[in-house]
Amino acid sequence: MIGKRDVQIWFRCNWRLVNMEERVSAVNTPANVPMTRRKSYGRSCMENPSLFWQTPGHLTTLGHRVPTSRGAARSCNVISKVDPEQIALLMKHEWKLAYVTPLYRFQHARLKSYSKHLTAFIVAERQQGVAIEVGTEAGIKVTVSTLQGIAENEDDAETVFIQIHSKPMFGADALKPVWRGWLTCVNGDHEYIKSLPPDFVSLPLFCSSGSEPLTALVKSWFERTFDCNFGPLFLNSTTLNWLAALWTGCHPDSNIRFLKLSWTMPTQPSLDIMYTVNPQDAWELWNSIHSEDGADDRIHIDEVQQFMNGLETHLFRHFKIYLSAGTLMKVSTSLGSAHHDGKIKIGSSDYMGTLLTLLTECALLRTPV
Amino acid sequence: MDEQSRAILQRILRKLPGKKTQNTLRVWGCLSAEQLQDLDFTQPKWLLLENIISKCEESRLRLKDVTKLEMVYHVENPNQGTWHAYKLAEAEDEALSVDFTQFKEMFISHLEEVVQHVSIRMKKQEDDAVWIRIAWGDNFTKPNHLKPTYAVHYLQTPYVFILNLASKHKPFLYQALVLSTRHAAINEAHLTGRSLTALRDLLMKQYQQVFPNQNRTLKERNISPSHPNIDKEHAEVAERTRQMACEAFGDGAVPKLETAVYKLETRYRGGSSDAPGDRDELFRGVVKFSSPNLLESLRHCVSTGMSESPVTPLLSSITQKGRNYFVIAEKVPGAASQTPAHTT
After folding, report:
1. Is residue A354 part of a domain?
2. Inter-chain CB proximity B297 and A285 less than 8 Å
3. How far, CA to CA in Å, does B283 sit from each of A308, A352, B96, B329?
4. A175 pLDDT band (50/70/90 cuts)?
5. Is A312 inside any structural domain?
6. Is the domain of A202 the same as that of A149?
7. Residue A335 falls within a domain, yes or no?
8. Confidence band (pLDDT; 50, 70, 90) for A54?
9. Contact between B288 and A274 using a beta-carbon 8 Å cutoff
10. Chain A partners within 8 Å of B341 (Cβ)
11. Which residues of A271-307 are buried (b: 16+ CB within 10 A; e: fewer)?
């Protein structure tokens, strides 16, 4: 059964492991890892190479298990669980997304000391090559805290919220928030999280809002401190299609006000096509495709595809433009918006869980083994 | 110079594009040749502006000189703000013989009759365009020179283009325009865009149009270097598609529109006839096309095969009807006439 390709992967993994051992002092040796685990974190891939037999060329943490159906969006009164001020903060900004590999030896109990270290790190990095007055350290303050109540599943690690305050260059002495970001995991894949070696915490979704250099600094501190890796998280059309269908399905319970879809066509100069659908009409179309079957209301990918095809065909009948030649760039309703470049906005706290579950899954799918 | 004039002068000067400043001031003609020579146009903008303002103070310029500069600025930069196109209708017999003096007299008297405080400035450009600047006031307030309306009318044509018109002033301006041009009505042309020139070119068909019988000339002009691998048949198909795209959207440089909006009030046409999604009710929505140059994008879209041929009348209506806002309603069953785009 072992093909040439598999052997190559096998060797590459070994080589990677050696590298890791040089770099990281405390690697979990494969011997410590029980053989029963099917999924594994990259570092210990020696334990059970059979994973690669199953999914050649598809080396992500969730492997072949791209879900083809999911539960319909359910309203969840987050306000009762989470601090309303925090929720307001999450809904105020547009977030840039990234995926994160599991954090090594991250402890929620040590957030205070992380705050101090991250502050020191940012100050130190900023001083590189720049003449800075001694004693301006007070100009920056980082707070790392937990955001309780976002996690929905008992396997999910609590969400970590980071905020950077900085003293404005001119004017008032008060510190102003200049950057914020959070690492979260909502309904993360149970099997995958269970399969992580001890000492690893999975918070695969990273959302940030603020200046790009600060984002880079925070990422680099996390990468050094917890031996993890960040990567950009783009939202492909499948994800955007899911959101369009999930949000439209909410319409009877929570007015979505509009369903807006934007495509960009690769013409010269590029052409944007924005289709705003009446919410009631969109829902009726969705309702005619998706049949609710009792308590376990699951949505199948085929239904999502049919819904989107329905909308695209309707447009095609009018304008004769092949939307498939372009890219679906953005989906938005009053419940939130999601952009192909990996940017989201949360419009409703009640349906935040659905959005974050989907994004957590996207992040896990993008996370390399 | 009073406070108000100085404030307006500063605002306009700040808007002037750096490279054009010298020329604009020369066209304006309120500063003497020596004063212009004294100015150093390589100075940083803020310093230059201060110097210009002091020269204006020197020459004791008044509000009407300042508004003149504003008009020069708009004439030279006809792509600032959003222009709306209007079409005069039901021309009277004398409509074609209205000249500028007549128009000016009548327009001012009609407008001053209904609005007590109004300040009007009018100038005829070389291309027969009459530029009108209106600063509105009402019974109790002086004309507000910070928010003037601009109207551009091409004499002896039914076209008027308007910038910054508040809805409360609409009836006054409409009436003055209709009466002074000897028409009976004025309608919105449902055409808006940032470039006045583009709107004018589109409505007056002043761009390179391609007609079905021009087939041969177009082909000759676009001889592509022959390539042995390209099938002759393919080339012909490609040429036909291009021809079609040019017929619909024009050839060469096309008027620069930014958007086209379609309000769809049609029945759902998504699935096949027996699909569950098909319903009798309307499927409402709004489709907005946007691009830095919409017609060029659409032409490229059609000629590269990103759309099915022939070009749908919905899209070709932009040039055919000279508008970019449409309400698309379901055809009335039984009605013989095809009305793909009808007016609100």
Report:
1. no
2. no
3. 14, 28, 45, 10
4. confident
5. yes
6. yes
7. yes
8. very low
9. yes
10. none
11. bbbbbbbbbebbbbbbbbbbeeeeeeeebebebbebb
Question: Which residues in chain A touch residue B308, judged by CB atoms under 8 angstroms apart?
Answer: 316, 320-322
Q: At what angle do helices A279-289 and A237-249 cross, to 10 degrees?
A: 100
What is the set of domains in chain B, with CATH numbers?
3-76 (no CATH), 83-203 (3.60.90), 212-329 (no CATH)
- Do the beta carbons of residue B5 and residue B63 sit within 8 Å? yes
Six-digit token string for A221: 């501190």
Residues A269 and A302 placed together within one structural domain of the fold: yes
Q: What value of ipTM does the predicted structure carry?
A: 0.85
Give me the number of domains chain A comprises: 3
Of A265, A267, A314, the CB nearest to B268: A314
The full length of chain B comes to 344
Residue at A345 is within a domain: no
Residues A10 and A120 in one domain: no
Measure in Å the smallest separation between the Cα of B252 and chain A Cα atoms.
Answer: 14
Same domain, A195 and A150: yes
My answer on whether A261 and A186 are in the same domain is: no
Q: Is A274 in Cβ contact with B287 (below 8 Å)? A: yes
From A208, A232, A256, the end of a domain falls on A232
Tokens of B267: 């029945």
Range of the domain at A127: 83-232
Element (H, E) at B118: strand B118-124
B270 and A265: CB-CB below 8 Å?
Answer: no
How many Cβ pairs within 8 Å bridge chains A and B? Answer: 115
With bands split at pLDDT 50, 70 and 90, how would you rate the model's confidence at A29?
A: very low
Cβ partners under 8 Å of residue A296, min gap 6: A71
State the pLDDT confidence band at A18, using cuts at 50, 70 and 90: very low
Q: Please enumerate residues of A whose Cβ is less than 8 A from a Cβ of B.
A: 265-278, 281, 284-285, 288-289, 309-311, 313-322, 325-326
Q: Where residue B309 falls among pLDDT bands split at 50, 70, 90?
A: confident
Q: Is the pLDDT of residue A178 over 90?
A: yes
Output the pLDDT for position A37. 36
Whether residue A163 sits in one domain with residue A23? no
Q: Are residues A270 and A285 in the same domain?
A: yes
pLDDT for res A65: 64
Residues A97 and A218 in one domain: yes
How do residues A270-296 score in pLDDT, each as one tens digit?
A: 999 999 999 999 999 999 998 776 666
The answer to whether A187 and A357 are in contact (CB under 8 A) is: yes
Tell me the nearest-neighbour CA distance from A324 into chain B, angstroms. Answer: 9
Cα B1 to Cα B19: distance, rounded to the nearest angstrom: 26
